[in-house]
Amino acid sequence: MSETPPPELPAEPDLVAGLFGDALPAVRRYVELLGGDGVVRGLIGPREVPRLWERHVLNSAAVAEAVPQGARVVDIGSGAGLPGIPLALARPDLTLTLVEPMARRVEFLEDVVAALGAPWTVVRGRAEEKSVVRTVGPVDVVTARAVAPLPRLVGWARGLLRPGAQLVALVGAKAAAEVPELIPQFTAAGMADVEVRAVGASLGAAATTVVVMTRTGR
Asked: Which of 30, 42, 188, 218 is deepest in the core (most CB within 10 A)?
């Protein structure tokens, strides 16, 4: 029996070249890996391939608007490298570490880093583990995409953040709507300046929402 061929990669949106600049060859290669090995290894569902650009790559790159210049960023629960890899490709000024507990996902991330010749670090483990905190933290920004409900994510991320550093979580509409009622929990966890922010307006359908909050000195 012959294997089912992978779905055809989607057409590249016109705005990609302007967004990624010199990293254009790398982001194209990353999309090829997501739509090929990413599907074979079960990191991306076949039905997601036609919308790799808008739903995954550009949607992740939109987070760049919320990340300070020259930041040390750790992407927790990175999975297939989202949002960390598109973010770092759009923002070469950032220093990126990808943290992921599952071995097959770590292998994929390591293969991507090698294929792109990128200077990023891949760490296997959970963000809240002491060994990961010692290896990775403290950093300027923690990013995450669809990893856990926000209160749980705050608990995982806090140990990686120095005072004044930020959690930038890519969220859906439901999670964004719940933020006001969760602020007391965030405050109790030592987080302040909680803001729901729209990002990526220039990216059309790839525009998204992030929740940004800052670790206090507590």
From this structure: 30
The pTM (predicted TM-score) of the whole model is 0.94
Rounded Cα–Cα distance for residues 128 and 200 (Å): 29
Which of 187, 196, 195 has the alpha carbon at shortest distance from 215?
A: 187
Tally of domains within the chain: 1
**Token duo for residue 115:** 């294929």
Q: What pLDDT, in 10s, does the model give residues 106-143?
A: 999 999 999 999 999 999 999 999 999 999 978 999 99
Where in the sequence is the domain holding 49, given as residue range(s)?
Answer: 16-215
CA gap 94, 153 in Å, rounded? 22
Work out the end-to-end distance of the chain between its first and last CA atoms, rounded to an integer number of angstroms.
Answer: 60
Is 10 among the domain residues? no
- State the DSSP code for 158: G
CATH code at position 200: 3.40.50.150
